[in-house]
Amino acid sequence: MKLLLRNGRVVDPAAGVDDALDVLVEDGKIARIEPKIAARGAEVLDLAGLVVCPGFIDLHVHLREPGQEWKETVASGTAAAAAGGFTGVACMPNTVPTNDSRSVTEFILAQASAGAAARVYPIGCVTKEQKGEELAEMGDMVAAGARAFSDDGRPIASSLLMRRALEYSRIFDVPIIDHCEDSSLVAGGVVHEGEVSTRLGLRGWPGVAEDLMVQRDLLLAEYTGGHVHIAHLTTARGAEFVRRAKKWKIAASCEVTPHHLVLTDAAVADYDTNAKMSPPLRSETDRKALLRALSDGTVDAIATDHAPHHVDEKAVEFSRAPFGIVGLETAVPLCLDRLVHGGVIALRRLVELFTSGPARILRLDRGTLRPGAEADVTVLDLNRQGVVDPSKFLSKSRNTPFAGWRLRGAAVMTVVSGRIVHDAR
Amino acid sequence: MKLVSRHLLGIETLEPSEITTILDAAESFAEISTREIKKVPTLRGKTVVNFFVEPSTRTRSSFELAEKRLSADLLNFSTSTSSLVKGETLLDTAKNLEAMAPDFIVIRHSEPGAPHFLAKYCRSAIVNAGDGSHEHPTQALLDALTIRQRKRRLKGLRVAIVGDILHSRVARSNVLLLTRMGADVTVCGPPTLIPRDAERLGCSLTHRMDEAVEGVDVIMMLRIQLERMRGGFFPTLREYARLYGLDEARLRRAAADAIVMHPGPINRGVEIMGEVADGSASVILEQVTNGVAVRMAVLYLLAGGTEREAAA
Predict the structure, then answer these.
(1) What is the pLDDT of residues A241-290, one digit of tens each?
(2) Which one, out of A84, A344, B185, B272, has a CA that is 20 to 30 A from the CA of A66?
(3) Residue range A135-152, pLDDT digits in tens
(4) Best residue in B193, B196, B203, B205 to probe A by mutation, most A CBs within 10 Å?
(5) What does the alpha-carbon distance between residue B227 and residue B225 come to, in Å, rounded to a whole number?
(6) Given B12, B89, B112, which is nearest A202 (Cβ)?
(7) Among A92, A106, A69, A70, which residue's Cα sits nearest to residue A149?
(8) 8 Å CB contact of A204 and B12
(9) Quick check: B196 and A319 CB within 8 A?
(10) CB–CB contact A194 B196 (8 Å)
């Protein structure tokens, strides 16, 4: 079984490639990447005018299975991923029950092999039932296929436990992903604390609650030698701390979400529950600092924090609505339109943030198109015009603040192990 | 003039001309409450639902009286009788209320934005009777009416609002209304009870009460909730009263003809001393009287009336 991707512009930052090249796929692997490869029995796809990249990886999604299948399943979530240009997703463990044991990790992977459109990399809980009390059996979960550990959504409050987690994770060389917030300072906050929270009379969630935890985690990573990965960084100070930590050679990495890069807390103004997320949309100063961190190399990956919720769950009073928005089917268009066409970063850098960046964090043998690698490929059309239409999402959920946005650029084809899982060329 | 707004969700969405329209109409309606027969047929055949999802005595009584004096039919739907305790969502409750085709829904709710939520889904005119820590527009309107009656103007007046600004919908609505109408407003309270970036609302800020009241025309005191002490916002009611209570000595720092306001219910001896609450500067009971007139005006104008007809 051969597939020839012809006439595209190959952008593979990890390999230092940005050229007009053909890509030959054989038996699910990349066979050759060269100019003008002869067809010889291969199915030929003409990708003239399109950009051929290593498969995009989203290292922060919620697939909601097991336990909340009305919001999303492994099947629907990976279908959304493929439609959005992602060949792989790392799923957070806050399922019901939580993914804190080998059996749940195995269940998720079994669901994935039963028909997922994209690869699934389970993230296990750091602590049993995400309670922040005792470490979960990381070794057992790693053996079953877990690639990282996190108590996402329930930050590890105890510094001692965080220290132990970072130390223990070194046995397996896996990152501890922390959702950074000092819960006592968040104190029930639902929007960024500032003029908007004051005007709306909503409880504020100060940026300093995040800054403190980012700083703590970075210091503990330095002290223990463990790898800390800061999930969805949102503050100017936090970005500065990570920048400095990298200068000090601390094993630290961080991700930002597309929504924190393009929206501020002003989006909440009409009590729109689809602008309610955790961490909250921040100030324009913070947003600008994130853009700078994106372009200067401080940020390692863009991740969606795809958080599906049923429409009924969001159609409630603002304070009572769950946090989060879906992101898999809007991330690439948003980033191409606002970041690349918007002049913030070059295409090459964006591709890095979606490929080798997340692959390095999760220790995946992915994120580049060198011969011999699994043929996971994302094809972009930089000029495809589109309007975000939630009714067309493959995700089970529609909770997005981007409905109706006109965006230029999209992922038009997704290939996983040489199999075309999405084609909208 | 008619109101541009279809709902009264907050002062935030009102134009200064609309505020003047409401206050002018309220002046006319105030007279009705002094008549032998305190009732006009203005809203005959109109239905008002008083949807109170948070306990309230005075605001609710005031709305009820306003509705009755306008001859509206009213339906009271409150927490204890509501289906919300049975687990029905606000949206479903609203849809059910809507199915009974009321002309107005007056809503009091503990969550900021609940009236805005209703306005998105309902055809009825929505009146915000207080939404959490957000706004309480009819309170600010009745306060403005009271000030205007005493001072003949709002523009250029110096007003101090003292107390728990962070949790106060009364403070938010008053700051928005008074600054919009050209008054010079200072908010004052302990830093723990001042919302972030409060000055962006257009007011000044101080944490020292003596400074706040110096030479002002109006002192507006806010009720302090006992829960705030338990929440660690200040150590004791005793210390709070000493730092932010209004006594006669502090009142003397204000202008000689300054008035003292309070949205009630008052905590005597805490944020306001009895001598001040009962003293000659106090207009606290006039505020209550004006509440009925302002709410009559709001309902009347939202029903499509003009202030000229209100005067007739």
Answers:
(1) 999 999 999 999 999 999 999 999 999 989 999 999 999 999 999 999 99
(2) A84
(3) 999 999 999 999 999 999
(4) B196
(5) 5
(6) B112
(7) A92
(8) no
(9) no
(10) yes
Confidence (pLDDT) at A70: 97
A22 is catalytic: no
Number of residues that this document lists for chain B: 312
Is B230's Cβ below 8 Å from some Cβ in A? no
Strand B73-78, strand B259-261: pairing: unpaired
The single residue listed with the structure tokens 């207009």 is B283
Interface of A with B in 168-207 (CB under 8 A): 193-195, 197-202, 204, 206
Distance (Å, whole) CA A324 – CA A390: 15
Packed helices A102-113 and A74-84: angle between N→C axes, nearest 10 degrees = 60
CA–CA dist A170, A188 (Å, integer):
34
Rounded Cα gap, residues A206 and A213, in angstroms: 12
Q: Is the peptide bond before B191 cis (omega within 30 degrees of 0)?
A: no
- The ipTM estimated for the assembled molecules is 0.93
pLDDT at B308: 65
- pTM equals 0.94
Q: What residue ranges of chain B have pLDDT lower than 50?
A: none
The one catalytic residue among A151, A217, A305, A337: A305
Query: Which chain B residue is nearest to residue A206, measuring alpha carbons?
Result: B196
Render pLDDT for A195-217 as a digit per residue (tens, 0 to 9). Answer: 999 999 999 999 999 999 999 99
- Chain position carrying tokens 């940026």: A207
Q: Which residues of A touch B205 (CB under 8 A)?
A: none
Please give the pLDDT value at position B86. Answer: 66
